[in-house]
Amino acid sequence: MWRLSGLIMTLGMKKRFYYAVRAGRKPGVYANWDECKEQVDKFPCASFKKFATEEDAWSFVGTVPSNSQAASTECSDQSKSADKELKPENSSGEKHSLSPDADDKPFVKHFKSEKSFSDLEHKFTYMGDAVAVYTDGCCSSNGRKGAQAGIGVYWGPAHSLNLSERLPGRQTNQRAEIIAACRAIEQAKELNIEKLVVFTDSMFTINGITKWIKSWKSNGWKLSSGGSVINKEDFERLDKLTSGINIEWMHVPGHAGFPGNEAADSLAKEGASKPPC
């Protein structure tokens, strides 16, 4: 009995891996090899790796260049199958062959996960079937006289919709974060985008629009302490914009090397340096 229990514990503790597809039929992160294989088998210039952590896997996917799927002419021996020849590198750079894991199971997507790839036709970034966008806000001398705030909206490398603006009105970092999300949703609606994933490093914005706003409304826009919600007008605007569009809010750590977030941050800083609206 002890040996059987020990065997069960050993099997239960087998390490899980994440299969990141950076260039394939549908780039993303997959829970098992079979799903990954469907995306890369016989795909020209397939790029994929096996990682020990989901965050590292998403980071690998997020570094895809905009022309990754257009580089097939630079590849050789494109007809090789994934079973025989595709040997990705793990996060340490060590070469190995992929094979199915016995304990592969579906995994839960975390807020800090980053799943994106470039669509050459529309030049959008996707997360599943939803368009992804990064937003950020910044404010120099926040809370002090002479504060200058800006907003950034990043859709992809050199994308025509990338936005860098000076924040109108009261200059604060929190307002900049909220309005940046507002502007991204406004742009999405103008293009009739039905599903949108908003990446932001502002948990204040995410919690405000997904949790706190319900109690604010029922309490007449009052905080539990009795004070008024300072950013009421901004959240009302954001709340109204979320109607009629499917939005998923994703938190990405700020200044942690995520390309999309870094780009949005740069656009926000550029906006803050512009003249007042």
Continuous helix count: 7
Give the rounded overall mean pLDDT.
75
Q: What's the N-to-C terminus distance? A: 74 Å
- The percent of residues in helical segments reads 25-40%
**Could you give the order of the helices and strands?**
HEEHEHEEEEHEHHEH
Q: Which regions contain 5 or more consecutive residues with pLDDT less than 50?
A: 1-13, 63-121
Main pleated-sheet profile: 6 strands, mixed
The total of beta strands comes to: 9
In short:
The chain has 277 residues and is an alpha+beta fold.
Explain this structure.
The protein starts with a helix and ends in a 5-residue tail after the last helix. It is of the alpha+beta class and 277 residues long. The protein has helices at residues 2-12, 33-40, 54-62, 173-190, 203-218, 232-241, 259-272, and strands at residues 18-23, 28-30, 47-51, 125-127, 130-140, 148-154, 163-166, 195-200, 246-251. Helix 4 (173-190) runs parallel beside helix 6. A hairpin with a 7-residue loop joins strand 5 (130-140) and strand 6 (148-154).
Keywords:
alpha+beta, 277 residues, 7 helices, disordered N terminus, 9 strands, six-stranded mixed beta sheet
Q: Could you outline the blueprint of secondary structure elements for this entry?
A:
Blueprint: H1 2-12, E1 18-23, E2 28-30, H2 33-40, E3 47-51, H3 54-62, E4 125-127, E5 130-140, E6 148-154, E7 163-166, H4 173-190, E8 195-200, H5 203-218, H6 232-241, E9 246-251, H7 259-272
Parallel strand pairs: 5-8, 8-9
Antiparallel strand pairs: 1-2, 1-3, 4-5, 5-6, 6-7
Helix pairs in contact: 4-6
